[in-house]
User: Fold this.
Amino acid sequence: MQDELIKNTLKEDLEKAGIDTDIGSSDTEGSLDKEKIKAVSNGLEEIGDGKTPEQLYADLMGMIAINYPNMETDMIEKAYLYAKEHHKDQKRRSGEPYIIHPLCVAIILAGMDMDRDTIVAALLHDVVEDTGVTLEEVEAEFSKDVARLVDGVTKLTNLNYDMSKLEIQAENLRKMFVAMAKDIRVIVIKLADRLHNLRTLQYQKREKQIEKATETLDIYSPIADRLGISKMKVELDDLSLKYLEPEVYYDLVEKISLKREERDAVISGIVREVKSHLVDAGIKATVVGRVKHFFSIYKKMKKQEKNLDQIYDLFAVRILVDNVKDCYGALGVIHEMYKPIPGRFKDYIAMPKPNMYQSLHTTLIGKDGTPFEIQIRTFDMHRIAEYGIAAHWNYKEKGSTKANEAETQKMNWLRQVLELNQETESNTEFMNLVKEDLNIMGDEVFCFTPKGEVKQLPAGSTPIDFAYMVHTAVGNKMVGAKVNGKLVPLTYEIQNGDQVDIVTSQNSKGPSMDWLNIVKSTQAKNKIQAWFKSENKENNINRGRDALTTYCKAKNINFPELNKPEYQEAVLRRYALKDWDGILAAIGHGALKESQVINKLSEAKRKDDVANMTDEDVLLKAQEEYNDKPVRKNKNGGITIHGIRDVAVKYAHCCNPVPGDEIVGFVTRGRGITVHRTDCINMINLPNDEKSRMIEATWQENSESGHDTYSAEIRIYCSPRLGMVVDISRVFTEEQIDITSINLKNAKNGTGTLTATFDIHGKDELKKLIEKLRAIPGVLDIERTAG
Assistant:
């Protein structure tokens, strides 16, 4: 009877996610203690459907009573009532009371055995962002720890309106990682929040569904993977696939469902055979079979360019045992039963993944010729595989927020992210580096230092990557490398089991720029770039300062009048840099143009002048404008050319300026004024003797709201796939934008470049279009042509 109870418990809880379905399960002894059952059964089931807040609160307290019989729940009850009161007038898009969302997030975390403060913070996680409550009030009502957790998951709200959506996302990401470093519970709450939002994403508009699903695959799912929280990761992946590729998702659901009986029979047969042999070997074990997750099947189909019928290893068998010795004992039994596929065995027990994952993986050939995977691990390893860092963090004893030394070593990745945060000035550059680093995780190689220490690197890494993983100074002083005792070129790709010895020299002049094209890891790239920025910073600052002075003299601009801290602040906000030296250095190495900076300083001064203008100043300015009207309006463009009357104006085809762009006029011989964007390559590279022909130009007010359209051109870098051009064209059609020309080229590296020319009303409309195009699966990057 107890055998059947355990079997059903495991089967139910592993099916609760709706995608991790057990086909068969068995326990070789028929008796497992409560802790072992809990290690398997803490499912993150879908919750909240049709229930009232009172019913969900009862579910939450019931779960806490089971997991933590001695937990003090007064603060949890207080947090529930507090959040319910402050969210009382708010509804979700589904029409449900808003309080249902924080309750569901709290239930997810209670199912992961998180502590009281985490559950309290989950109930309160939106009160600061979405109501009038302040962090100070949260701290006064609850505790400093709770307020810190709530702050960590609260998005920044006081960001400058000039910042783009991408910059705002990057700034929030920076904040989250800093908070996460102080307390890992921040990201666990954030992941639970994102999981419930994805579960209810059907109520959002299609555009928002694509945006949230893409962000989840780019950021949150890889973070869950890095932290080893696979229970969340697999559901985040599958739900994201559901909204990004709905046809693929539902096709997989239907096709896998059709062959369920056939597959069930195969897996049940394997489970019975494995159970029988383990019993004969005297090994206590629980054996379960499961279908692989939709997203992992989809990735395999894409990678191998096969359809579902051609993918054979759609299922896996998992063996859970008491100790490490039994793991290897079970492996021996399995390899006697079935023929292992060479090269498909991985020992993550001896060499765990950075996210603390431990297990033995082996792929075998069944008796009917069907390949399948078996994973062997202990119950403790299984809990860590499901909940990762959340399973190890020691909150249960006096609210401690410190991990033990072994766990701290596993957090190297987070420390690398914090280094990126300190060394990267640009928000968008920081986000791109983090996304790249997250997406590298997957295939990896294990190699050794001369002292036998294990190092894990992305597949394809070189000795340069290895050197920078050991220490920044080792990388900067590197002059060569030995692998397995033999000298190798720096381009050598490290293989599993290699022993790598880095040769350094104090006479080394530092890394080479060519290394950036060789290294694989984001950490190495960032360290190399940081070295060059540091070495050349002073020279770049001086070059930038000279460039600003020269530009202002050529334009007869009073630079000291503009170069004031209050105006500099506007430039720093616009380009998301930390200090004025950063702006000067950016000009010096070509990342910014002096015209862009001066235009922003001038704009800040104009706003300041208007704010401080008296009635007498207004009357005087009106009289001056009446006496001197040095403008010409282009009938099609609403362009104002300052200081010149009655001259022909046209737009440059090299950069296609549109209303909202920063622009400059250029006097052409016999053809009037040509208007360019200030970041146009032709203007940036203008010879010094030609710069005197540049003239100030601005758009008239309300240029974007008129009926006139302007030609714009963008390049879309994408992964070529069937239907890509159709998907891109559909976005243009939905936005009611006419495409005047389109051209697609495929490069040898497997990427494609689609160049589209079209008519548009202004920059805001262009930004909206680009955001929608970025959401198309397979689109890698988009840029405007600039000459």
Summary: The mean pLDDT is 77. The first strand starts at residue 22 and ends at 27. The two ends are 77 Å apart (CA to CA).
